[in-house]
């Protein structure tokens, strides 16, 4: 394995390729000896990788070992090219990696050495069997629980960080309890994560709150104290909430559902605005000035994306159905339905505006990630809208500053996206220069709110496009009056402009 040399927080240059062994014993402020915590995190994805990097950064006295089944992912975490793009993450990892932060595939060793184990594996929507299309798939969480039970050799605190339905902590406890050996004991805590992609480091460093859910027993309470002690390294006590495990798990699902509901609410209003000639930005601004409502998460768009809002809404719908609460299930299902409606509506508007056909027309698509400042395309509205346009026979030139070419190709030609991958593949062109992407196109379609899209030279772009040239701003980020003046036929969400005849 390649050795990496990095300058560490103590100013020393060091090489490393594997986790250090043998932990020192530290003294706290009162000089009392205290064993340094040895933390392991199973799952080196967005959540495990970034949250544990910040944990290592904020807790130099804690040894953090992040493990994953994927060799490629771990190789990337140990390289100069991290597997995820997050502003500020590179700096944090560079400072701690090889000191008190380690990435490896040696899950058994990490679990054995740890006294606290975070489970941060994926919990996607089930694609098969009971609950297909709605329930959270807990197979990866179960594998972790069984692995911990198999290799644990002492007392362990198991912290459920993945987003899970409300019974998950019980089933983890059940598996662990059925496998205890002499000298081995387990406490299971719920500690859901609230970071948002693109702002993960800021969210982890200054969280609105940290939830620690546990059992109401002396063992549960002391486990909660242990985890509270870790977070206390950088988070004030009043931002750390201790609660029951079920409340903690439900709070996570409810928080995502509330956020998704706000986006769907303003998007539903945007359709009304388009129909009556109102402006959704003005409505959102005025509604948000009510301090009881607040201004955040009222930005109308092509719909919400990302790996969690839809998944967690569907999980909540499934839970409500399982609890025989069909009205509750329908309520949350509608939040998701509006999101699909909003995406489809925008795709249809593009086709309708381009004289009811996009067949063989070239369109430049700006942005493929589900939001700015991330390279993540999971459930991105861009995937859905591009697929819609490709099905209509459009040729699309895609530019995104962070999403890899192969990722875009996979997303649009997978069996989930199309039944005709060969035909679709020929219609897609990926660009690394937005000015090249627009040449000879009929329209520009903005699908992610990257800041750089605001400052492009649209006059220059217009000069190389087919006329009449169209601009569809699905994120409401550019100066519409300015591009209309240039001569673009402009469309956006929640507002209608007079057709441009320049
Ligand atoms: N992505 C996000 O912004 C947020 C995600 N969450 C939740 O956190 C959880 C993880 O999400 P992400 O980090 O986005 O997922 P991810 O897909 O980026 O990462 C999960 C990682 O777990 C690894 N893994 C799966 N099974 C494993 C096993 N048995 N042993 C070792 N490694 C294993 C996978 O190889 C993968 O690298 C999910 O439940 C998600 O709902 C919560 C808050 C934010
Ligand atoms: O559980 C999770 O995975 C995370 O889900 C969201 O974080 P994330 O999906 O990374 O990003 P958000 O900023 O919430 O945006 C989600 C989607 O909604 C869209 N959005 C957001 C806000 C808005 O006003 N309008 C709007 O269309 C975004 O463009 C994006 O597509 C939550 O914000 C996090 O608290 C949570 O931890």
Strand and helix layout:
Layout (H helix, E strand, L loop, with lengths): L3 E4 L5 E4 L8 E3 L5 E3 L2 E5 L3 H13 L4 E5 L3 H7 L11 H8 L4 E4 L2 H7 L2 E4 L19 H13 L4 E5 L7 H10 L8 E5 L9 H6 L4 E5 L3 H14 L8 E5 H32 L3 H9 L20 H14 L3 H28 L8 E5 L14 H11 L3 E5 L5 H9 L7 H7 E4 L2 H4 L5 E4 L11 H6 L6 E4 L6 H7 L2 E4 L10
Parallel strand pairs: 5-6, 5-8, 6-7, 8-9, 9-10, 11-12, 13-14, 13-16, 14-15, 16-17, 17-18
Antiparallel strand pairs: 1-2, 3-4
Helix pairs in contact: 1-3, 5-6, 9-11, 9-12, 11-12, 12-13
The structure holds 1,4-dihydronicotinamide adenine dinucleotide and uridine-5'-diphosphate-glucuronic acid.
Largest sheet: 6 strands, parallel
How helical, in percent, are the residues? 40-55%
Bound heterogens, unique? 1,4-dihydronicotinamide adenine dinucleotide, uridine-5'-diphosphate-glucuronic acid
Provide the low-confidence segments as ranges: 17-34
- The radius of gyration over CA amounts to 25 Å
Q: Mean pLDDT across all residues, rounded?
A: 93
- Roughly how many Å apart are the termini? 62 Å
Assembly context of the chains: single chain
Please state the overall shape, judged from the principal axes of the Cα atoms: globular
Number of helices: 18
Strand order of the largest sheet: 7-6-5-8-9-10
Structural class: alpha/beta
Strand content bin: 15-25%
Count of extended strands:
18
């Amino acid at each position: 394995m390649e050795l990496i040399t990095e300058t560490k927080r103590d100013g020393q240059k060091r090489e490393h390729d594997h986790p250090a062994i043998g932990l020192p014993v530290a003294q706290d402020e009162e000089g009392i000896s205290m064993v340094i915590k040895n933390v392991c995190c199973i799952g080196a994805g967005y959540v495990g990788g970034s949250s544990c990097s910040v944990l290592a950064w904020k807790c130099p006295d804690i040894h953090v070992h992040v493990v994953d089944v994927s060799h490629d992912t771990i190789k990337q975490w140990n390289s100069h090219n991290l597997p995820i793009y997050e502003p500020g993450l590179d700096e944090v990892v560079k400072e701690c990696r090889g000191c008190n932060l380690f990435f490896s595939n040696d899950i058994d060793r990490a679990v054995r050495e740890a006294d606290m184990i975070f489970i941060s594996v994926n919990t996607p929507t089930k694609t098969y069997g009971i609950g297909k299309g709605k329930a959270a798939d807990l197979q990866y969480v179960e594998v972790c629980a069984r692995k911990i039970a198999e290799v644990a050799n002492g007392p362990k605190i198991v912290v459920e960080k993945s987003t899970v339905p409300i019974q998950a902590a019980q089933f983890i406890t059940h598996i662990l309890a059925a496998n205890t050996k002499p000298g081995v004991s387990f406490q299971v805590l719920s500690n859901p994560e609230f970071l948002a992609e693109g702002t993960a480091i800021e969210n982890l460093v200054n969280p609105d709150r940290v939830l620690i859910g546990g059992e109401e027993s002396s063992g549960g309470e002391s486990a909660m104290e242990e985890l509270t002690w870790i977070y206390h390294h950088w988070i004030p006590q009043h931002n750390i909430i201790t609660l029951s495990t079920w409340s903690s798990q439900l709070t996570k699902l409810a928080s995502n559902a509330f956020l998704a509901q706000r986006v769907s609410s303003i998007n539903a209003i945007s359709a009304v605005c388009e129909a009556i000639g109102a402006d959704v930005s003005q409505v959102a601004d005025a509604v948000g000035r009510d301090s009881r409502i607040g201004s955040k998460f009222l930005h109308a768009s092509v719909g919400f994306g990302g790996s969690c809002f839809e998944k967690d809404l569907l999980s909540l719908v499934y839970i409500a159905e399982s609890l025989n609460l069909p009205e509750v299930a329908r309520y949350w299902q509608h939040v998701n339905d509006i999101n699909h409606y909003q995406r489809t509506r925008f795709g249809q508007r593009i086709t309708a505006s381009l004289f009811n056909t996009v067949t063989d027309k070239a369109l430049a698509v700006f942005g493929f990630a589900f939001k700015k400042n991330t390279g993540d395309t999971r459930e991105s509205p861009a995937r859905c809208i591009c697929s819609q346009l490709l099905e209509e026979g459009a040729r699309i030139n895609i530019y995104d500053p962070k999403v890899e070419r192969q990722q875009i190709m996979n997303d649009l030609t997978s069996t989930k996206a199309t039944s005709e991958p060969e035909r679709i593949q020929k219609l897609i062109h990926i660009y690394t220069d937005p000015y090249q992407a627009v040449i000879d196109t009929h329209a520009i379609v903005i699908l992610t709110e990257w800041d750089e899209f605001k400052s492009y030279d649209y006059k220059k772009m217009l000069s190389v496009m087919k006329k009449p040239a169209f601009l569809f701003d699905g994120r409401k980020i550019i100066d519409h009056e300015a591009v209309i003046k240039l001569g673009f036929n402009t469309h956006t969400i929640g507002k209608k402009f007079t057709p441009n005849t320049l």
